[in-house]
Structure formats: structure tokens, C-alpha cells
Amino acid sequence: MSQDTEGGFASKYWRYFLDGTAMTIFISLIGVLVGLVLGFILSLMRLAKNVIIRFLGSSYVEFVRGTPLLIQVMFIYFGVGVFFNLPALTAGIIAVSLNSGAYICEIIRSGLNSVDSGQSEAARSLGMSRNQAMRHIIFPQALKNIWPALGNEFITIIKESSIVSVIGVGELIFQTRVVRSASFEGILPLIITMMIYFVLTFTLTKILNYFEGRMNHD
Fold first, then answer.
1. Could you give the CA distance from residue 43 to residue 167 in angstroms, rounded to a whole number?
2. What phi-psi label fits residue 127: left (phi over 0), alpha (psi between -120 and 50 degrees) or beta?
3. Which of 69, 121, 153, 186 has the most CB atoms around it within 10 Å of its CB?
4. Residues 18-76: pLDDT tens digits?
5. Whole-angstrom distance, CA of residue 201 vs CA of residue 206
6. Cα 191 to Cα 198: distance, rounded to the nearest angstrom
7. Reported pTM
8. Residue 218: burial class (beta carbons within 10 Å; 0-12, 13-18, 19+)
């Protein structure tokens, strides 16, 4: 393909890739933030002494992890959406967030369990409540252990957010299909999309590695 053709392709379709990338980042960011909150709550439920609470947390995690994200997206959009008239974007964000929360739950739970029980006992002996010990002693130590796994989950969300394209959300994969259909180019849009995903995940990896190094230094 000549440089003129490539330049014409870029000038004509760059907006599609930009819009798709922005939507992918938006979905991933919301999914990560909601997933973190949900995952933390679920991890506390799974570590609770109350049998019912622990059962509810475990059941949710096992069910979500045992079913494909694609089915979850379609169920929320076509199933739940029948009763609440959910827009495709909202349904996609909900599905990604709920799915992410289950995986982040297991990451946080394993991190909390990795902290020596003596740390909690020492905190309690100093007069701290269970919540204070968790907030000031246990969780900061667990965060160092789970940060690499959390980083991998964030990167996974960026890539798996492409699944919401099946319900018509205009993220990067959806826009790539539009460009391929409009331009009659089969390979070039795919190459551009792969490079965009690589830049996103590579940049995020470097940022996460930087903060991991800071935490290890501290």
C-alpha cells in the first residue's frame, strides 16, 4: 500500500479508532474502580465468620468465575435489560464490573491471607479494633503482595472489554469492524487495533511497575 493510500486511510478513519480507544479506556476504568470496591467487599464476605455471609460471597465468586463473560454481557443486556431498559453501554459496564469484582475478590483475599496472623494479633494487643488493624496493618502489607496480580487484572480488563462489542457498544473492536466494512481493508485496521491495544497495555504495565517499585522501596 502506498504512502498516499495509507495517509488517506488514516485521515479518513482515525476518528473511529480514537472514539473506540476512548470508549475502551472508559469501560475499563469504570470496570476497575467498581471491581475494586466490589472485590474488597466480597473478600471481606469470604473471610467473615458468619457462615451465611461467607456462603453468599463464595457463591457469587464461584458462579461468576465459572461462566463466560460473553454470556454475562448478553444476559444483563438481553435478560435484565428487558425489565430495566438498560442501554448497551450501561449493560456492558455492569457486566465487566461484576466479572472483575469476582476476580479481584480472590486476589485481595489471597493477599490478606498471606499476611502473618501475628500481625493482626499484635495490632489487637495494642488496642486496635479489628477494622483498625485491617486498615492500618493488614491491608497495607497485603497490597504489596497483591499489586502485581491486580496489575495483571487491570490489563486483562482492557483486553476483555472488547467483548461488549457483541451488544453494539462502540469500543475499539466494534469501531474496527466498522472501518473494515467501510474501507474494504481487511488487514490494516486489525494491525492498527493491535498496536493500540499494545500501547495501552504496555503503558499501563510500565506505570504499574513504577508504583510496585515505589512500594517495594518503601
1. 30
2. left
3. 153
4. 999 999 999 999 999 999 999 989 988 998 889 999 999 999 999 999 999 999 999 99
5. 9
6. 11
7. 0.83
8. exposed
